[in-house]
DNA sequence: AAAGACAATTTTTTT
DNA sequence: AATTGTCTTT
């Protein structure tokens, strides 16, 4: 057997990681240091030289995309090492949720589930919670369903069920009541949300030691990617599986931990070292992606963070071009600059559109850029946004399929009953829900009863009965047909196709196109080889929930990428434009008050900057129109944290206004002064609060509000035209 | 029961 | 600004 492909092209540190002896390892790998590569090669190494079969390897990633990539790389490697190796048979590579789901499908009985349990996505969960909050007769404005979901998921992510929580105050008591009711509903309807997948599978192992032992023996090797993004329960899951006998190989970068706000615990990295004192730490610090200047800039920014595990990226590459910083008048000027710069670069070199990316803090910033790109006719692709399976019309269709597969799915029932409208209104539903609540039954059972026995109007009974009959018939009639035919039958006989086809209220035509696309997706769908689910429909439903799919399909077309910095993690481009570098935008105004959050923003900046291979372009706007009103922000602190000698500044003022493309209107009052001749950044004085700095402004004319950070009195928002503010006289 | 006016809301995202 | 959900009207 030739193991050389496994080591080819690896540097000393990478090689050490790949060939490490069998014991626990923590690999701290900086951006662009080849961590995914190391992970794939490590698995190849384990199989080729340590005598493991691929089926003895379990590797976890965070996204489906990463899982697919990993699987492909390993397959290619193994094929090279040992031609005809049966291509990674039996290997478990997937997301935490995907693997947990597989476990629950295999051991549904032991996990206390019904065989046909359904997965509840975030949207389903919110709807269900809304229903529950209403049923409990609580004030929705005081207990918003979204917040309830947040509260419940937060506890589940920490491994706590309702019974583990001791309420100390009335508010917590109420949240707990919601949690309990939610648990009961999910139980009764056979529904499992994302957090539940993990918690259930963890409990499955805890409560069935023999089963756990089986998996420990089966997977002596457990590998985790993006370890800094694991939450409490994911960590517990890995720890339980590894136990004392297994071998954990975890890869991460504490400087790229950007998901703390959704429960990820960077501390898990340290905790791993506490829990496995013999684990050796290896650092991958050589970066193969970016120029020296880009790395220097990124390193300088991240150096401002507290409590890092310590790591300094270096490269043998040239320092490259300086970091460009563009100061725009406003967001339109900024977008114009970005697009013109792209055109210029493309004219001067052989860059493809796909080598260019614009990254921003929040999705709201993408619109202007999009308009500018359209104006100049450049192809682009916005990543993120609504996924295919999250679209309303698709979810409507899926609700029918879910009911066909599992009648007791209350979430699907609520969605499908009256979509499209078929005369089953609030009153009727109220009655159905009431019966369900008193009998502790699913909505389906309750509806069956109501359609014949309840005290409903004959009309309503009939409508209800027709709906129930429709589902039963769809199930019966299409049982032996292909998945695509089933979907097609659902669209036709449910009336959804006619409903969306009619074009509704100004509704976009692609709604109906999406329905056709769903049929086509179904016809192309192939259940995974080693899937524990025997029904094609059930497998398809799980696929839709776990893998919502990219919104735009045109992946092959050469186009500029637009996305949030979060979405850019793991990707790289020759030229990266980081726009909206303004205090209050990035770092976000919701983060500036807390050190921890600010650190996370800074890590996000680090992630964004290190996406660039050749050229990094940073920009900020003096004025930005956001949510309908004007904002005047100071340049982001992250800009100031980039050493000056790395920067080449481009001032907007050098460009005449007449150079603006005709379709973008010239900026009104762009860099103008605020009323009273003030500008952001000025020193001001207030008779009562003393001296301070004008840091931000919002609104225009007489409504302009400004934020002043007073030297003594703290920060305050004042209406400029009323506040007795004066410009401070400069002291000598 | 369904359409239309009105008000509130707006980080980041995966599964 | 624009989307989203709630309330009102017919």
Blueprint of the fold:
Elements: H1 4-7, H2 12-18, E1 25-29, H3 35-49, E2 57-61, H4 64-81, E3 92-95, H5 96-106, E4 118-120, H6 122-135, H7 145-157, H8 170-189, E5 191-193, H9 194-207, H10 209-218, E6 221-224, H11 232-242, E7 247-252, H12 267-275, E8 280-284, H13 292-302, E9 323-330, H14 331-348, E10 356-360, H15 366-376, E11 380-382, H16 392-405, H17 410-416, H18 426-439, H19 443-450, H20 458-478, H21 483-494, H22 496-501, H23 510-524, H24 536-546, E12 560-564, H25 565-568, E13 573-578, H26 595-609, E14 612-626, E15 629-633, H27 637-640, E16 647-651, E17 683-686, E18 690-698, E19 705-710, E20 714-719, E21 726-727
Parallel strand pairs: 1-7, 1-8, 2-3, 2-6, 4-5, 6-7, 9-14, 9-16, 10-12, 10-13, 11-12, 13-14
Antiparallel strand pairs: 14-15, 15-18, 17-18, 17-21, 18-19, 19-20
Helix pairs in contact: 2-3, 3-4, 5-9, 6-7, 9-10, 9-11, 13-26, 14-15, 16-17, 16-20, 18-19, 19-20, 21-23
The protein binds a DNA duplex (15 and 10 nucleotides) through residues 62-64, 95-98, 101, 119, 121-122, 193-195, 197-198, 229, 258-259, 261-262, 361-364, 367, 384, 418, 421, 423-427, 505, 545-548, 564-567, 586, 588-591, 600-601, 604, 625-629.
Give the tags.
732 residues; alpha/beta; Rossmann fold; Arc Repressor Mutant, subunit A; 13-stranded mixed sheet; six-stranded parallel sheet; DNA-binding
Structure explained in plain terms:
43% of the residues lie in helices and 16% in strands. By secondary structure, it is α/β, with parallel strands linked by helices. The protein has 5 domains: 4-103 and 199-286, Rossmann fold; 118-189, Arc Repressor Mutant, subunit A (Orthogonal Bundle), CATH 1.10.10.160; 323-387 and 551-650, Rossmann fold (3-Layer(aba) Sandwich), CATH 3.40.50.300; 390-537, PCRA, domain 4, CATH 1.10.486.10; 675-727, Beta Barrel (Thrombin, subunit H), CATH 2.40.10. Strands 9, 10, 11, 12, 13, 14, 15, 16, 17, 18, 19, 20 and 21 form a 13-stranded mixed β-sheet that branches. A 6-stranded parallel β-sheet has the order 3-2-6-7-1-8, sandwiched between helices. A two-stranded parallel ribbon has the order 4-5. Helix 16 packs across helix 17. The longest helix has 21 residues, at 458-478. It starts with a helix and ends in a 5-residue tail after the last strand. It binds a DNA duplex (15 and 10 nucleotides) through helix 5, helix 9, helix 25 and helix 26.
């Amino acid at each position: 057997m030739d193991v050389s492909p496994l080591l080819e092209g690896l540097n000393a540190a990478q090689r050490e990681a790949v060939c490490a002896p069998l014991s626990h390892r923590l690999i701290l790998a900086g951006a662009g240091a080849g961590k995914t590569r190391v992970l794939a090669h490590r698995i190849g190494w384990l199989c080729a030289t340590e005598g493991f079969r691929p089926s003895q390897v379990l590797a976890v990633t965070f996204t489906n995309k990463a899982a697919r990539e990993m699987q492909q790389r390993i397959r290619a490697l193994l094929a090279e090492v040992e031609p005809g190796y049966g291509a990674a048979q039996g290997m478990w590579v997937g997301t935490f949720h995907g693997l947990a789901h597989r476990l629950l499908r295999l051991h549904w009985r032991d996990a206390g589930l019904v065989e046909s349990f359904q997965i509840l996505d975030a949207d389903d969960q919110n709807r269900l919670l809304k229903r529950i909050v209403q049923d409990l007769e609580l004030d929705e404005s005081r207990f918003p369903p979204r917040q309830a979901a947040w509260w419940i998921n937060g506890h589940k992510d920490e491994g706590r069920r309702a019974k583990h929580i001791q309420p100390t105050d009335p508010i917590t008591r109420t949240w707990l009541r919601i949690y309990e009711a939610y648990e009961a509903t999910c139980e009764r309807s056979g529904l499992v949300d994302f957090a539940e997948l993990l918690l259930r599978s963890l409990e499955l192992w805890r409560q069935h030691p023999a089963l756990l032992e089986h998996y420990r023996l089966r997977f002596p090797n457990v590998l985790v990617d993006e370890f800094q993004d694991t939450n409490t329960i994911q960590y517990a899951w890995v720890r339980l599986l590894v136990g004392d006998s297994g071998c954990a190989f975890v890869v991460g970068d504490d400087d790229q931990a950007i998901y703390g706000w959704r429960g990820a615990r960077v501390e898990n990295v340290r905790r791993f070292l506490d829990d496995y004192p013999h684990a050796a730490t290896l650092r991958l610090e050589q970066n193969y992606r970016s120029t020296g200047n880009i790395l220097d800039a990124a390193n300088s920014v991240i150096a401002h963070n507290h409590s890092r595990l310590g790591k300094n990226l270096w490269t043998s590459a040239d320092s490259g071009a300086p970091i460009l910083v563009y100061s725009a008048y406003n967001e339109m000027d900024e977008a114009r600059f970005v697009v013109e710069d792209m055109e210029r670069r493309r004219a001067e070199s052989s860059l493809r559109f796909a080598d260019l990316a614009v990254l921003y803090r929040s999705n709201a910033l993408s619109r202007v850029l999009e308009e500018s790109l359209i104006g100049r006719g450049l192809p682009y692709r916005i990543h993120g946004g609504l996924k295919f399976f999250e679209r309303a019309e698709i979810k409507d269709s899926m609700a029918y399929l879910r009911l066909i597969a599992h009648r007791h799915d209350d979430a699907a029932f609520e969605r499908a009953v009256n979509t499209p409208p078929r005369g089953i209104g609030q009153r009727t539903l109220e009655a159905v829900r009431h019966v369900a609540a008193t009998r502790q039954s699913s909505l389906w059972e309750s509806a069956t009863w109501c359609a014949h026995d309840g005290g409903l109007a004959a009309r309503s009974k009939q409508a209800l009965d027709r709906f129930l009959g429709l589902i039963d018939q769809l199930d019966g009639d299409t049982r032996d047909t292909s998945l695509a035919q089933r979907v097609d039958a659902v669209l036709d006989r449910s009336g959804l196709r006619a409903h969306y086809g009619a074009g509704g209220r100004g509704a976009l035509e692609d709604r109906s196109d999406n329905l056709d696309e769903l049929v086509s997706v179904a016809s192309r769908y192939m259940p995974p080889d080693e899937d524990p689910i025997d029904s094609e429909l059930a497998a398809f439903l799980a696929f839709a929930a776990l893998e919502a799919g990219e919104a735009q399909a045109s992946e092959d077309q050469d186009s500029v990428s637009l996305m949030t910095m979060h979405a850019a993690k793991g990707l790289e481009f020759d030229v990266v434009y980081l726009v909206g570098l303004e205090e209050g935008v990035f770092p976000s105004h919701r983060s500036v008050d807390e050190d921890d959050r600010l650190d996370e923003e800074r890590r996000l900046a680090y992630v964004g900057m290190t996406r660039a291979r050749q050229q990094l372009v940073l920009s900020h706007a003096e004025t930005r129109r956001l949510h309908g009103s004007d904002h005047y922000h100071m340049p982001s602190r992250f800009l100031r944290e980039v050493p000056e000698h790395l920067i080449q500044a481009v001032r907007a003022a050098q460009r005449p206004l007449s150079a603006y493309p005709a379709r973008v209107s010239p900026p009104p009052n762009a860099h103008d002064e605020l009323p009273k001749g003030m500008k952001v950044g000025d020193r001001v004085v207030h008779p009562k609060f003393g001296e301070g700095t004008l840091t931000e402004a919002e609104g225009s004319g007489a409504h302009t509000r400004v934020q002043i950070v007073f030297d003594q009195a703290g920060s305050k928002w004042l209406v400029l035209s009323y506040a007795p503010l004066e410009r401070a006289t400069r002291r000598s």
